[in-house]
Specification:
heterodimer; A: alpha/beta; seven-stranded mixed β-sheet; 21% strand; globular; B: mainly alpha; MetI-like fold; two-stranded antiparallel sheet
């Protein structure tokens, strides 16, 4: 039996020739049907690159990304993606945005069946009263719900979430985490959730996989299984020692990797050119023969090395 | 003072004051007629009318009004080919503008899309566009005359309905008014967020569906800005074109009245052109506002 999703030896870089910057290096990941996987990492380590590779929006430089044993050659509706910035079309209403997906993917259904299908998913994210509104009239949390509804309405086999909640405030984020976890419990779609928040990862996922930054590009670390019963109640969970241990393990793994990969960038800082004057010294003429400022460039050149990060 | 603000009197009063100042200035520099009666060398009584003032041939506001009245109170009268009510002239001009403008949009929008979608297309055509864009309508018109020389479309009774000069006029309006539409459409298409295109890719929308469901709606606000600027230019060009080819219309009327030494009507024409241009721009920006999505 082949895995629903398999990445083996995947590398991806950007830029040309000598300026080439490897973002991901030797990434291996297998996901089974019905898995809820969370990939956690610092911002800027290549999390979005990873999800774009799985979505098919990017092609790997080396290695293979395959679904059901077949290599992924491009994006498709069977891998639904929820973008960090919602990506709703502002000229369409909530229903219109969902209908765009439904009309495209279910051309065989009748008009009323498609409307009912869209309505079902709008209801699932509790937005039925706002179905006729435009994205600009909605809050950030509501917009992300529309995005989730649009993606789910396509009946994807894998749901990819690219930091879906990181633009939201903490309270809205908590509500949406619970809601998406609830939807997953009912539908059991395979989910890959990318995040930078250890609490979020532990609350929603079965497996947490750290994305470790490195000098030669980031790679996936050892997975951390989360064996906590569902539904997970955050108020109870955050106080258990198991949760705290796991969180500590994630944070330590990430911090250790960060230390290893600490970028050795030395930046040249231009120090102010004018040297301070000692005003306690009385100077000679002030009116016509005012001495100009003493400049550092007239002295020996100085360079300062600053460790970034 | 409160009442003043409540009734938005300042919105009416201030422009009124400015108008008064301008009309006052006009009246001050305008010439005045003075008729004197005198006894000439032959011992006959004669009258002589002389004009005084800074710009002695410039008609004063009241003279302008008196001379323009027949054109304004009967705006749709047709007394002859070149003697018609002012709105009838304006209507003739607007019809020509509408045709030229329609051609400009029909050509300019697709060209703008190609420029926005293809980097190579932009690299190839941008220099040509940048060189052709600043060319004056007065320069295009003769070329249009050459291009369409010999063209003559006649109706059943043998009267010419569409000739070289009509084609040249449309050509000039279209080519001058096209550029803002081309450039703004290109900018709008380039500004379509990658996210929207990703949505299209994930849903596997066809090229046509991506065009009509993603690209056009997303670029529409930019396109309408271009359309509005284009309409402004089309209206600007019509006057020059009508002057050169002598077609009946506001611009043609203006030029003919200048040749007839009937200066008051020049002012009438200028005010009409300005007013209609203003109304067109307001109307377009109302439509533009409706399409502003984000």
């Amino acid at each position: 039996m082949s895995h629903i999703l398999e990445l083996s030896g995947v590398s991806k870089g950007f830029g040309r020739a000598h300026e080439r910057n490897t973002v991901l290096r030797d990434v291996n990941l297998t996901v089974e049907e019905g898995d809820f996987v969370s990939v956690i990492g610092y911002s800027g380590t290549g999390k979005s690159t990873l999800i774009n590779l799985i979505a098919g929006l990017l092609r790997p430089d080396a290695g293979s990304v395959s679904m059901d044993g077949q290599p992924i050659t491009g994006p498709g509706p069977e891998r639904g993606i929820v973008f960090q910035n919602y990506s709703l079309l502002p000229w369409l209403t909530v229903a219109g945005n969902v209908r765009l997906a439904v009309d495209q993917l279910f051309p065989g259904l009748s008009e009323s069946e498609r409307a009912a299908h869209a309505a079902k998913f709008i209801d699932m994210v509790k937005l039925t009263p706002a179905a006729g509104k435009y994205p600009k009239e909605l809050s950030g949390g509501m917009r992300q719900r529309v995005s989730v509804a649009r993606t789910l309405a396509a009946n994807p086999r894998i749901l990819l979430l690219d930091e879906p909640l990181s633009a939201l405030d903490a309270l809205t984020r908590a509500t949406l985490q619970d809601e998406i976890a609830e939807i997953w419990r009912n539908s059991r779609t395979t989910v890959i959730w990318i995040t930078n928040d250890p609490d979020e990862a532990l609350l929603v996922a079965d497996r947490v996989i750290p994305l470790l930054p490195g000098r030669e590009g980031a790679t996936l670390g050892e997975e951390i299984p989360v064996e906590m019963p569902r539904p997970r109640d955050r108020r109870v969970l955050v106080q258990t020692s198991g949760f705290k241990d796991l969180k500590l393990r994630i944070v330590n793994t990430l911090l250790a990797a960060k230390k290893d990969s600490a970028p050795t960038v030395t930046r040249k800082l231009a120090a102010p050119d004018i040297l301070p004057e000692d005003l306690s010294h009385p100077r000679e003429s002030h009116l016509f023969n005012r001495p100009g400022p003493r400049r550092r460039s007239q002295l020996a050149r100085e360079e300062m090395k600053v460790e970034a990060g | 003072m409160k009442l003043f603000h409540q009734l938005k009197l300042d919105a009416i009063l201030l422009p009124a004051i400015a108008l008064l100042i301008c009309v006052g200035g006009w009246a001050m520099i305008a010439g005045r007629s003075k008729t004197t009666t005198f006894v000439d060398d032959w011992g006959d009584k004669a009258t002589k009318t002389e004009r005084f003032g800074l710009a002695k041939n410039l008609p004063s506001p009241s003279e302008t009004w008196v001379a323009s009245k027949p054109y304004i109170v009967e705006p749709f009268a047709k007394r002859g080919e070149l003697d018609q009510g002012i709105l009838r002239f304006a209507w003739l001009s607007l019809k020509l503008v509408a045709q030229g403008y329609a051609i400009a949009l029909l050509i300019g929008t697709p060209v703008g899309f190609f420029l926005g979608l293809s980097k190579n297309f932009t690299r190839a055509f941008d220099p040509i566009i940048q060189i052709l864009r600043p060319v004056s309508p007065l320069a295009w018109l003769p070329l249009g005359m050459v291009l369409f020389s010999g063209l003559k479309v006649m109706d059943a009774s043998g009267r010419s309905v569409f000739g070289t000069s009509d084609a040249a006029a449309l050509f000039t309006i279209a080519i001058c008014a096209m550029w803002p539409t081309v450039l703004n459409t290109a900018v709008g298409v380039r500004a379509v967020p990658q996210d929207y295109l990703n949505v299209a890719k994930v849903l596997k929308l066809s090229k046509m569906k991506t065009l009509f469901k993603i690209l056009i709606p997303s670029a529409l606000p930019y396109m309408f800005t271009g359309f509005r600027l284009s309409l402004g230019i089309a209206w600007l060009v019509i006057v020059a074109v009508e002057m050169l080819i002598g077609k009946p219309g506001v611009g043609g009327f203006l030029w003919q009245q200048y040749n007839a030494n009937s200066y008051a009507h020049i002012i009438l024409s200028i005010l009409t052109i300005g007013l209609i241009g203003f109304i067109l721009d307001r109307a377009m920006s109302l439509i533009e506002g409706r399409f502003r999505t984000a």
